[in-house]
Specification:
Blueprint (H helix, E strand, L loop, with lengths): L7 H8 L2 H8 L3 H10 L7 H10 L12 H24 L8
Helix pairs in contact: 2-3
Length: 99
C-alpha cells in the first residue's frame, strides 16, 4: 500500500498505465496526460479513480484527488454531511425498542 500520494502522476501510475486509465474512462490518453500535466483529475472522474484505487488496496479519499484550492470546500461539505447524519440518527425514535 502506498503511504501518501502527492501528485496525480503518482495516483495514475499506482492504478495503471495512462492507456489503461483512458480506456476505463472512455477518454483519450492525452486527456489522462493532461491530468498529470496540470496535476488535476477531472471532477467527474474523481469518484471512479477512488474506486479503482480501492480495488488495488490504495487508500485514497476525495480530499486526496481534489485540487488544493478546492480542499477547504470539500472539508466543509464533509463536515455538514456528517452533522446531517448525526442529527438524523439523534432525531429518529427508537423503533422496536420498549422503554
Amino acid at each position: 500500500m502506498i503511504e501518501k500520494i502527492k501528485s496525480v502522476k503518482e495516483i495514475i501510475d499506482s492504478i495503471g498505465t495512462r492507456k489503461e486509465i483512458a480506456k476505463l474512462f472512455g477518454i483519450s490518453v492525452s486527456a489522462v496526460s493532461h491530468w498529470i500535466l496540470v496535476n488535476k483529475i477531472a471532477s467527474k472522474s474523481r469518484p471512479k479513480i477512488i474506486e479503482l484505487a480501492k480495488e488495488k488496496n490504495i487508500n485514497l479519499t476525495m480530499l486526496d484527488v481534489t485540487p488544493y484550492r478546492k480542499r477547504k470546500r470539500v472539508v466543509e461539505l464533509s463536515k455538514k454531511y456528517h452533522e446531517l447524519i448525526q442529527d438524523k440518527l439523534n432525531n429518529e425514535p427508537n423503533q422496536g425498542i420498549m422503554p
